[in-house]
Each structure stands twice: as C-alpha cells, then as structure tokens.
Specification:
The protein has helices at residues 18-29, 52-67, and strands at residues 2-11, 40-48, 73-81. 7% of the residues are buried. The protein is of the alpha+beta class. A three-stranded antiparallel beta sheet has the order 2-1-3, with helices on one face. The protein has a single domain, classed as Phosphoribosylformylglycinamidine synthase subunit PurS (Mth169, Chain: A, 2-Layer Sandwich), CATH 3.30.1280. The chain has two helices and three strands. The longest helix has 16 residues, at 52-67.
C-alpha cells in the first residue's frame, strides 16, 4: 500500500537560524512588522509499505540517516494513505 508522508525538519531551540534571521531582516526592511522567522524544511514522501507501522519505521529511518542532523535538528512527520 502507498502512504503519503509529510516530514518536517526544523532547527532545535538555541541553534542559530541564519536563513530565518535574513528573512526577518528583509521583511522588516520592506515594512512588515514581524517579530521572528524560523526556517523549516518540508518533504512530501511517497512510501510503499505493507502497513502504516512499516511506513512509519521507514520514514523514521530516513530521517535519522539522511533527512535530519540529530545534533542540531528536530523532525516530525504525518502519515496518511495515498
């Protein structure tokens, strides 16, 4: 069965988010009164697996091995049937 998974990767609290800071400064220069910006990566992944539990295990493994750097990033994901 095919499952669609949305994976969200974000920096851990306390880690400097240079991209977010740059966007915040640019928005302020354009007149947008934002208090803060944090950058987040989102991946939509299609997984073929026998069950939702297997699909979750595959995505968890992919996050640990490739998609996120566990030293500086947190990840979360939502899974649903295709």
């Amino acid at each position: 069965m095919e499952y669609l998974v949305e994976v969200r990767i974000e920096l851990k609290p306390g880690v400097i988010d240079a991209e977010g800071e740059t966007v915040q400064k640019s928005l302020a220069l354009l007149g947008f009164p934002v208090k803060g910006v944090r950058s987040v990566k989102v991946y939509d992944i299609s997984v073929e697996a026998g069950s939702e539990k297997e699909a979750m295990a595959e995505v968890e493994n992919a996050c640990r091995k490739l998609l996120a750097n566990p030293v500086i990033q947190n990840y979360s994901f939502r899974i649903r049937k295709a």
